[in-house]
Amino acid sequence: MAGQTTNVATDYRDRFLVELIQNAYDAQPKGRSDGRIEVTLDMGASEYGTLYVANTGQPFAKNNVESLSYVALSAKSVGQAIGNKGLGFRSIVQIADDPRIFSQIPEAVDPKIFHGFCFRFASSDDFDALIERPSHRQLAKKDLPKFHIPIWLDEQSDLVRDFARRGLSTVIELPLRNQSASDVARRTIDELEAQEVPIHLFLDRILELSICIVSNAGNLEKSFSFTRTEQRQKLSGLIFSRASLGADGEYLIARREVSEEQMKATIAEAIAVNELDKYWNEWTGPGDVAVAVRLDAPINASRIYTYLPMGDQAEAPFSGYLQGSFFPSSNRKNLDAQHRLNALILDEARALVADAIFHLVGVSESNRPGALTDEEAAKVVAEMVSWRSVSSLQSVSELGTAMAEVLVSRLGCESLDDANIVPCVEVVGDQSKLVWKTPALSRDWPPGLTVFGKVEAAKWAQETNSWPIWAMSEDLSSRLNAFLDEECEMYLGGPNGEERARLVEVVAQSLLTASSRGKKKWMMYFAELPAFMENYGESLAGLQVLIGDDGLLHRAMDYVSKPKAGKKNKGRRRQKQIAIFSPPDERRISETSELRINPPAKLKERFSFLRNDLSWHEELSETRLFLEKNNLVEEFDREAIFSRLDRTLRDERNKEVLRGGLRWAFELWRQARSSPRPFRMQPQFRFRVPIQSGEYIDAREANFSASWPEDTLGGLVQEFLDVAPQGLKDVQEIQHQLLAETKHPAFLDTHIDDWVAFLSELGVRRGLHPVQKTSTKRKFKAHELRDFSFVEQFGIPLTFGNFWRDDIETGDNDPLYLPLSTNYVIANDLLWFPCQSDLNEFTSVCQRKYACLVLRWLETSPEFSSDVEVHHEHNRNSDSRRWPMPLTTFLRASCWIPTDGALVSDETEPVAVASEIWLNDIEKELFLPFLPRPMLELRRLIERGGSQLLENLRNRAGFNQIGRDDMLAEQLAMLCDCFKVGKFDPHFRQRLLNLYYSTWRKFLTAVSSSAEAEDQILRPQRVLIQRGNSIEVVNLHDEDEDALSVPVYICDTGRLGDVDLLMASGQPFFNLPDSDSEVTGKYFEAFYGERIRRISKVEYSLQADGKDITEVKGELVNSLVPELRSMVAVAMEALRGTEAQRLPSNRAEVLRKLDQILLAQAETIRFVIDGNSVRTDDLNRQSFSLTTEEGKVLIVLKSAGVLNWDRIDRCLLQICEALGHVSLAAHLRILAFDRKGKEFGTGGENVQARVSAMADTLRLSQVEVLAAIATLNEGLEARVPLLRAALHYAAGPNAIRRFDQQFAMKDNDTVALRALWADILKDTTINLEVLDAAMRDAHTSRDFREMLELDFALFNQSLSAVGENMELYSEQHHRALEAFVRQNDLRITQCILYSERKSLGMFRPFEGYSDRRAAIYEIEPNMSWYPAYEVPPEKLLKDHLDAWLQRQGALSIDSDDLPSFNLTQVREHNRRVFQAFFVKAVPIVRAWCAKNGVSNQAEHFMKPNSSETLRKSLDRVGVLDFKKLDDEMLLRWCKAIGAWPGDMDATLELETLGLSADDLEFEAIEARKANENHKREARSVSFNGRSIDPEDDIDFEALAEEIGGSLSRSVLSSALNSQASLAIIEDDAKRIKNSKKNKKEKGLGRLPRIPPEKTEFIGRLGEIIVYSWLKTILKGQDIDAAWKSGNGGFITGRDGNDGLGYDFEVSYRKQTWRIEVKASLNDPQAFELGETEVAAAREAAKDRNGFQYKIAYVSYVADSSETCIEILPNPMTDDGASVLRLRGEGIRYSFERV
Question: Residues near 842 by Cβ (< 8 Å), separated by ≥ 6?
Answer without folding.
Answer: 724, 725, 850
